[in-house]
Design a protein that fits this description.
By secondary structure, the chain is an alpha+beta fold. Helices cover 17% and strands 39% of the residues. The two termini are 37 Å apart.
């Protein structure tokens, strides 16, 4: 018991090794209490971090927004909206996604127009996080956005009980593997995809550290977590490749952490 508390003090309360050992200790403690009333050591505190496939599914969400947009001087409205992926990070109610998920492109009077979730002229506006694995839907509010980093912080309105992701202490390297979690081309009833991939390249762009992965980042994947083998966050999926150009690109978790703390 005391040694495990020491591990927690040294490695941190959300360290995956401490969490795994503490959960095992708590299970064994419960069994011991059933057979002996003399066992006196208390249970250990355990952070509810993502540690496996099912945790990852329950902590990764479809985010969906929609509304009716009326252009200036227009007499009719156009339905607008977008869909992508978000994930709980740092605590259950804080969701991370991409800023561009909160944009959509529509044709109005023959012109291509980009509409922002926070544009003037939108009525009947909704923004929700949907989790097919737990069959839950949560209303969301926007906390913070950064178009340059293509990041958005969203807050669940309520008291969710799902687990949350924590970040790696150091970046993954080229040829190391992990999982891309998300909802590409999502339709109701489908749980999150978890695609195995390796890191193919690491590079800076616009002054921010990024990496390319070996699997395709499809429409709807944007905002999803790319995690290492222990399900700790390595990066945020942001951009997909086509045959003509682009990269299957993720923003490094260290860039996300720096932004969240400034």
């Amino acid at each position: 018991w005391g040694k495990l508390l020491y591990v927690r003090m040294v490695r941190g309360k959300d360290d995956s090794i401490y969490t795994r050992l503490a959960e095992r200790y708590n299970r064994l403690r419960s069994l011991e209490l059933e057979s002996s009333s003399s066992f006196q050591y208390p249970s250990l505190p355990v952070e509810q971090i993502v540690r496996n496939v099912e945790d990852a599914r329950r902590s990764t969400f479809v985010i969906e927004w929609k509304g009716d947009y009326r252009a200036p001087d227009a007499t009719t409205t156009e339905m607008v909206g977008g869909q992508g992926t978000a994930f709980a990070y740092g605590r259950p109610a804080q969701l991370i996604s991409c800023n561009h998920v909160l944009l959509c492109t529509v044709q109005i009077a023959g012109a291509t127009v980009t509409i922002d979730y926070q544009s003037q002229g939108i009525t009947n506006l909704t923004l929700e996080a949907i989790n097919p694995s737990s069959n839950t839907t949560w209303p969301l509010k926007i906390v913070r956005r950064d178009p340059n980093r293509d990041l958005a912080v969203l807050e669940i309105v309520g008291e969710p009980r799902h687990r949350y992701f924590v970040g790696l202490d150091a970046p993954l390297h080229v040829n190391e593997g992990g999982y891309l979690v998300g909802y590409p081309n999502w339709t109701p009833g489908r749980s999150a995809n978890q695609d195995q991939a390796t890191i193919q390249n690491q590079f800076p762009r616009s002054g921010l550290d990024r990496f390319e992965i070996s699997t395709l980042i499809r429409q709807g994947h944007s905002g999803g977590p790319f995690v290492g083998k222990q399900f700790q966050l390595a990066g945020v999926a942001q951009q997909g490749a086509t045959q003509e150009g682009g990269n299957n690109e993720c923003l490094c978790v260290m860039e996300l952490n720096d932004w969240l703390t400034t």
